[in-house]
Specification:
InterPro entries: CREG_beta-barrel, DUF2470, Haem_oxidase_HugZ-like_sf, Split_barrel_FMN-bd. The chain is an alpha+beta fold and 271 residues long. The protein contains seven helices and ten strands. A hairpin with a 2-residue loop joins strand 2 and strand 3.
């Protein structure tokens, strides 16, 4: 994953380095992040090109057919005419806001070319769109509306400040949404409310910060937990991985309990 330095304003707090190597740093790839964000929404900003070559942004709804965005566009709309004239397009999809700063939200751009569904794809594309946008049953069969598929050629994922990476269309097609995502917010809140001591123990034993005073879980995915740790040396961020990637949200409770037990039994204080 590429991490970009946006510069040092001079007064930003420094993050203390780990005192030990973290036991696991596995994270979802940019392609997996993109598939997860796309699967969690049904609205995006579509960028198309006018006949004069000018960029044109439009709010659209979409469904997903094996990760491929399905659009239902009217030829009466400007972006509908744009797509008919030039198939190059991109979708910008923003994850649900979790704070006051919109630029701290995760988001993706899916770029490629639109095509009409083949005869083999048509029924599945129609079903995918209706599943994501049930109200489309009132207009989907109007003569001016048509279905389009965005064949993704390039993906850009931004996870907030300083976290970003790219993926190819092939990588995006081969990835899958994180099965933990629908339960992640609830699980994060539960861990922070009821298991703060266990999170601190995980940071000490597995996160590389044996001097952790307290720890807060800032995110969970199929590969592990993101922790914000408070130490006498300052505040840092670390990763605690699961022994193996989870395949279902049903595994979350047992997986985090195993981490807590392992942390309690394996951690020894530094000299």
């Amino acid at each position: 994953m590429v991490i970009r330095d946006h510069g040092d304003p001079g007064d930003a707090p420094s993050a203390p380095p780990p005192l030990r190597p973290p036991s696991s740093g596995a994270r979802p790839s940019a392609a997996e992040q993109a598939r997860t964000i796309a699967a969690a929404a049904n609205a995006a900003t579509l960028a198309s090109l006018t006949a004069e070559g000018d960029p044109w942004a439009s709010l659209v709804a979409y469904g997903l057919l094996d990760g491929t965005a399905v659009l239902c566009v009217s030829s009466l709309a400007e972006h509908g005419r744009n797509l008919a004239g030039d198939p190059r397009a991109s979708l910008s999809i923003v994850a649900a806001a979790t704070g006051a700063d919109p630029l701290a939200c995760s988001r993706i751009t899916l770029a490629g070319k639109v095509v009409r569904p083949s005869d083999i794809e048509l029924d599945a594309a129609r079903a995918a769109y209706l599943s994501a946008v049930p109200a489309a049953r009132f207009y989907l069969d109007f003569s001016d509306f048509s279905l389009w598929l965005l064949r993704v050629e390039r993906v850009r994922w931004v996870g907030g400040y300083g976290r970003m990476d790219s993926a190819s269309g092939e990588q995006y097609a081969g990835a899958a949404p994180d099965p933990i995502a629908p339960a992640a917010a609830r699980a994060t809140a539960h861990l922070n409310a009821d298991h703060a001591d266990a999170l601190a123990a995980m940071a000490r034993a597995f996160g590389g910060y044996p001097d952790t005073d307290t720890a807060v879980c800032s995110g969970i995915d199929r590969y592990g937990l993101d922790l914000r740790v408070h130490t006498p040396r300052g505040v840092a961020y670390t990763r605690v991985g699961f022994p193996a990637p989870l395949v279902s949200a049903d595994q979350l409770r047992s997986a985090t309990a195993d981490l807590a037990r392992g942390a309690a039994s394996s951690w020894t204080p530094t000299a």
